[in-house]
Amino acid sequence: MGWVYRIGILLASEISFFLSLWIVLPAPYFWLLPLGVGAPEVSPWLFLANAIALGFAWFVSPRDWMINLAIVSVAIGAGLSLLPLVQVPATSAKLAMELRAELGEGYDKSFAALSGKLRSAPFLLLDVFRGIAPPLPPGAINIQRGIVFAEPEGISLQLNVYRPAAAGLYPAIALIYGGAWRTGSPDDYEAFSQYFAGQGYTVIGLDYRHAPAHRYPAQQTDIAAGLAYIQAHAQALSVDINRVAVMGRSAGAQLATIAAYQADAFPFRAVVNYYGPVDLARGYEEPPIPDPINSRHVLTQFLGGPPTELPDLYRQASPIHFVRPSLPPTLLVYAGRDNLVQAKFGRQLRDRLRDSGNQVVWVEIPWAEHAFDAVFRGVSNQIALYYTERFLAWALQPEVARSPQPVP
Hints:
Elements: H1 3-21, H2 33-41, H3 43-58, H4 65-103, H5 125-130, E1 141-150, E2 157-164, E3 170-176, H6 190-198, E4 202-206, H7 218-232, E5 239-249, H8 251-261, E6 270-274, H9 280-285, H10 295-303, H11 311-316, E7 330-335, H12 343-355, E8 360-365, H13 379-396
Parallel strand pairs: 3-4, 3-5, 5-6, 6-7, 7-8
Antiparallel strand pairs: 1-2, 2-4
Helix pairs in contact: 1-3, 1-4, 3-4, 4-13, 7-8
């Protein structure tokens, strides 16, 4: 075959191999982080690409160094791209046991009527390729964006509402976005919000002021204002005020968890924390390696300095210091390969909650990186979604009868 064809095969093979490497390599720089986040989530696509490239290279005759290099590269790439998939069965089985142990063997009986809307399995390979179908068809939900709920310092803070089209009061999720406290908006992760609206929830995405222009506790003040607005306008927002959960991602999870754990907190029925920082002083002292976002710089922009200068403020901004008995049940979802918020800190919060007699479900996805659920159809988000929807259905159904707290 001609040189152009051989070079094309080699180039395609090396690209597939390079992308597959990020399934196991942590991103050393911020601009490489999308590869570290996305590669494990699209690993079935990468396996397919490697397999096709291998097929083209294998039948080239005669072989030379370019074709041999292509064969070796895509063979390794194919093996790497299988790593998340081969871990799915054991991970799913472990998480199913965790859910039953914390919520009780018959926890799913309380939401049996919803079974047709819930995902049938933690992972469906076909959904990686076709996408995750919403529980209800288009037009079955209403979306309102840009509702102003507060104007601190003249800054317009807005919320988005995603709810079923039929009139009524629904269990609600107050949703707080991440972005290192510096970026983001209530529009983020809209596929998630629409998905849960399709299951019969009202999902409300809350805004807050950003660092470094506005430092903590401005963000917590804004979330409190948003929650007060929900409470005051519950009927207009289609919210059953007795069935509300709070959920956050990353920086938003830090804000959500503190909002739920305060002594005078909104009466949440559940807390969902996706890879949120929980002990900011230790996060500063023990940054990840590599550290693609410069965690110490992010924290000093958020709080105004290092923990040696502001120990009380770091403590005030750390959810782990708000743990006490009788907190709402908590779902903690962390990525095993997270190089922004290390999973070990989430485990420490889990242990502190259990030691205090609280119900907590721990979901750790071994191969995943921070913000894995940005790929909504991805391998990790499918698993997280499966257990999140069951946890919320258990917590927010009106007839739920929670099992006794597990003995620590």
